[in-house]
Specification:
The chain has 120 residues and is mostly helical. It is built from five helices and three strands.
Length: 120
């Protein structure tokens, strides 16, 4: 997946996925966390999937981080990751939902209380 000097990859993204356009796991999101399984990579695994497994060797990555490392579109990495998950060579965890926003009035009352303690 090395790129040219102009930034375009030498291999189009659709070739790295074997022509597959949609992931087998539609629940994979940009922030889904991918983790490599302990199973060894089987012989005959496509080069792009091997590259993704290698990227996961040092720890977990989100789909978007893996896409940046591999210099592939997120959609292509979703397809590759889905294939690895189907073969039980990797797993995916849903992204952690963002925390609920605090009530601004509550934050103001806490800050006022802390200021009152400071000056007491």
């Amino acid at each position: 997946m090395t790129g040219r000097a102009g930034g375009r990859p030498l291999v189009p993204a659709y070739l790295s996925t074997g022509g597959v356009a949609r992931p087998s796991r539609p629940h994979l999101e940009r922030l889904s966390v991918l983790t490599r399984a302990d199973a060894p990579a089987p012989a005959g695994l496509p080069a792009a999937q091997l590259a993704l497994l290698d990227a996961l060797e040092d720890g977990s990555l989100t789909v978007v981080e893996a896409a940046a490392l591999l210099r592939l579109p997120v959609s292509a990495v979703r397809v590759l990751a889905g294939g690895l998950i189907d073969r039980e060579l990797a797993s995916a965890r849903a992204p952690i939902p963002p925390a609920a926003r605090f009530d601004p009035d509550l934050l103001k009352r806490v800050a006022d209380g802390l200021r009152a303690l400071k000056h007491a």
